[in-house]
Every structure is written in structure tokens, then in C-alpha cells.
């Protein structure tokens, strides 16, 4: 089976396409294992669809299922385009609903891809934890967001406690001029990742609601890459580079 490895701003994924939708929890844990497998934050499987260019399955590296993944949506769009599974402008079905994506520049190895995320939903704006103000939002998956002076104020144990208390990804952010810096503890990876697309979107949306930033900004995740987030009349757009870092033949031994 041909398997591709992608990095979307440092959030990395193992990816392939298949004809059959089946439980791939155990395969995910093997492929995503950093020492015993290929190593990745998640697995994406593209599947045929009657209504959309494709449907996908997304699993976090621990084998848990998640409805959506912003960075993987950009990587999957590039994979679909270069494997002739979809045109440059496409729509595909995820657990969070239909995602539109556009491959803007691309060759076999990399591309600039824009995804339209699902409309953000504010669940709770009144959470106080350790004396800090947190918002609970859903940008395809659940996120907690707190703003502080610097993203260096990052206590992973504090974020891990919140992750389990609310079963959500946990983000800290700070304003950097007209833009944002974001660090994310990701549910299902159970650690900080180098970037989290729906997390950056959740931080952007809180900052927008609180008048801290404009409608179109740059966001810098832990990897230091530049992502472009915007608010259009419908939802949040999320754009940046994705890299197809390698392709391999994989014989499953399970
Ligand atoms: N870990 C997340 C899914 C992946 C989200 C993230 N990688 C992104 O780019 O949006 C969850 O379990 O809700």
C-alpha cells in the first residue's frame, strides 16, 4: 500500500486513500508511533464519496477519532489534487461537516492550500481556571483559549489538566503586533504539537471577538511557520504551506 507523509506547518500526518471505510484505530497507533512506526500526529484516509470529491477518516496518533483537523484538511487537499482524486477547488466530508479547500500553488512535493473551516461556535466565555479567563469554542473540534503576555508562559501540566477537564484541545496565545502567536496542547496526541489549525482558528476568533486583531492576520504556531487566517461572511479561512515529505510502500504486518 502506498503511504504518504505530510507536514502542515509542523503538524504531521500519515496519509493514504482506500476504497473501504473500516476501523483503522490499531493501524493508526502502529503507523503514527514515533519509534515503532512512521511517526505522526495523526492518520488521514481518503475514501470515495457519491456527493463530494471524497470523504475522510481522521485519527489522532493515540488512535482516537476526531471530527476535524485544520492542518490535515490542507494536507489532504494537496494529496487529493496530486493523486487526481479532486480538482484544485474541492469539497470533502469530515466528521465536522463539509470542508471546502483550494490548492493555490502546488507541485508534487508541496503546495499552498486554503481551507474553509466550519463556522466557529462559542460554547462558554466565562471559564476561570487558575485565575485566568478561558473561552471554550468549537472550530471543528473543541478548544480552550487563553490570552497571556507571552506564549513562553506555557505550563504543560496546567494545559493537560484542562484538556481532561473539558475533553478539549488547549491553546495559549498572545498578540504580536497585528498578529498572533499560538501554542497548543493537542487532545489525542497528548502533548504540544508544532501547529494546530483549528486551535489557531479558535484563538483568532476569540481575538477577533475581543477586538484584539483585524479580519485577516498572520498566526505563528510553535513551528514558527506563517499561517494566514481570515474571517469571511461565512466562516474562518486558513491558509499555508503543506509539504509531502515522503512516499513509501507499506506492507501491514498486523
Ligand atoms: N487533536 C484534535 C484533532 C486535530 C486538530 C489539529 N491537529 C488541527 O490542525 O486542527 C482533537 O482531537 O480534537
TrEMBL record:
Homodimer. This is Diaminopimelate epimerase. The active site is at 69 (proton donor), 69, 196 (proton acceptor). Pathway: Amino-acid biosynthesis; L-lysine biosynthesis via DAP pathway; DL-2,6-diaminopimelate from LL-2,6-diaminopimelate: step 1/1. GO terms for cellular component: cytosol. HAMAP family: DAP_epimerase. Pfam families: DAP_epimerase. Its EC number is 5.1.1.7. Keywords: Amino-acid biosynthesis, Cytoplasm, Isomerase, Lysine biosynthesis. Belongs to the diaminopimelate epimerase family. Substrate binds at residues 11, 60, 70-71, 169, 186-187, 197-198. The record marks 143, 186 as: Could be important to modulate the pK values of the two catalytic cysteine residues. GO terms for molecular function: diaminopimelate epimerase activity.
Amino acid at each position: 500500500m502506498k503511504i504518504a507523509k505530510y507536514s502542515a506547518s509542523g503538524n504531521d500526518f500519515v496519509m493514504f486513500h482506500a476504497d473501504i471505510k473500516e476501523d483503522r484505530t490499531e493501524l493508526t497507533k502502529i503507523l503514527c508511533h514515533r519509534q515503532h512506526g512512521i511517526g505522526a500526529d495523526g492518520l488521514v484516509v481518503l475514501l470515495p464519496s457519491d456527493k463530494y470529491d471524497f470523504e475522510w477518516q481522521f485519527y489522532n496518533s493515540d488512535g482516537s477519532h476526531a471530527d476535524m483537523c485544520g492542518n490535515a484538511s490542507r494536507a489532504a487537499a494537496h494529496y487529493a489534487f496530486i493523486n487526481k482524486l479532486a480538482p484544485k477547488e474541492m469539497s470533502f466530508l469530515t466528521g465536522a461537516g463539509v470542508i471546502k479547500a483550494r490548492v493555490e500553488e502546488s507541485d508534487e512535493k508541496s503546495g499552498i492550500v486554503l481551507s474553509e473551516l466550519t463556522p466557529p461556535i462559542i460554547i462558554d466565555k466565562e471559564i476561570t481556571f487558575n485565575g485566568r479567563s478561558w473561552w471554550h469554542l468549537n472550530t471543528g473540534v473543541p478548544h480552550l483559549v487563553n490570552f497571556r503576555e507571552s506564549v513562553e508562559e506555557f505550563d504543560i501540566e496546567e494545559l493537560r489538566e484542562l484538556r481532561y477537564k473539558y475533553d478539549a484541545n488547549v491553546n495559549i496565545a498572545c498578540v504580536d503586533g497585528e498578529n498572533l502567536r499560538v501554542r497548543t496542547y493537542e487532545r489525542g496526541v497528548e502533548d504540544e504539537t508544532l501547529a494546530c489549525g483549528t486551535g489557531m482558528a479558535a484563538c483568532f476568533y476569540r481575538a477577533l471577538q475581543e477586538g484584539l486583531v483585524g479580519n485577516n492576520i498572520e498566526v505563528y504556531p510553535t513551528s514558527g511557520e506563517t499561517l494566514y487566517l481570515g474571517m469571511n461572511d461565512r466562516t474562518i479561512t486558513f491558509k499555508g504551506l503543506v509539504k509531502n515529505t515522503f512516499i513509501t510502500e507499506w506492507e501491514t504486518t498486523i
